[in-house]
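Example 3.2
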Amino acid sequence: MRLVIIGAGFAGMYAALSAARLRDIKGASPEELEIALVAPEPTLVVRPRLYEPKPETMTAPLLDVLNAIDVVHVQGSAETVDTKSRMVQIATNKGTRKTLSYDRLVVATGSRLFRPNIPGLAEHGFSVASLDDAVALDKHLHSLPKRPAVNGRDTVVVAGGGFTGIEAATEMPTRLRAILGSGAKPRVIIVERNPAIAPDMGEGPRPVIEEALRKVGVEIRVGVGVAALDKSGVTLSNGDHIETETVIWAAGIRAAPLTQQIPAERDSFGRLLVDPCLRVPGVPDVFATGDAARAACDDEGNYALMSCQHATRMGAFAGNNAAAELLGVPTKRYHQKAYVTCLDLGEAGALFTRGWERTVEMVGDVAKKTKQEINGVWIYPPKPERAAALDSADPEQVTKL
């Protein structure tokens, strides 16, 4: 029997760990149940940290962990999925193609930045949505001192005032001063289409966020969007033009395109609708998880967000359940009632909230310490020691806050 997991992000990593854990508990051998993880590289990109300096360091190796738990890494990118023949076609890093059959499939392909058809966005926009994008932005920022200090060289416009946009914007003054010199006076502007900053955070945390933005010197333009980009800067939907050489697009993500190949229902973000055990209804032997799935967290109408907090736990349930079906044991219903946010606010510290109502629990330096622990410890892979790695993947304990 073979369980195939597509994707080595947070959901894919925990799907592999959890499936291997259940296999170990049930005494099945790797020969009886092969667990194969398909990804271009056996590496976890620590995506929540890509707004920080030195993004090229924001990765963590997975091969030793996978070897420790007897999970096979299949190097390459899944190009096609045939759910009728239960086959995945993979483009290898050497330019060849191969197919891999599966008895159960876990789609953990993550998400991609949504780039609308705005004139000039593809040519002149940057982002922190992927490792390559974040590295390109970092190289661009480090090239600024070689340019004349005119025409908005020291101005950064962040399009999108949600979680990612706020973290990128509040980190930017510090990054720019480190690059341009301590005497630099960078200008950072967030542009948000909605009438208020942080539209998804609600009224409770917003005053804290607004005060932090003032403290670090980030300007806010709400109720206006980006109409076009060119070499001279960005034109807003109200006709205003801002001279800048750096525009960061942070206005939404969508499920990765591979999910379109699964013949099932999807939501407006491209996520596959799943049942309580993360199966894709109507598609035998296929599970979806992480940013590829729209899953109910509880019975109160709350659904998993496209975040590593939800992806890790969803991955653990999906991997466990896919392995459970092959091993003939009961599956587990995914649930994740606890929900917290920890928003980095640059030199102003951070903001920690709890619950779907986002009750503020910590702010400033205290919250910053928690944010640093989350970013630097909690979201990294377990040590490549078999017992510890398997123990880390109990679905009921993963991301239990």
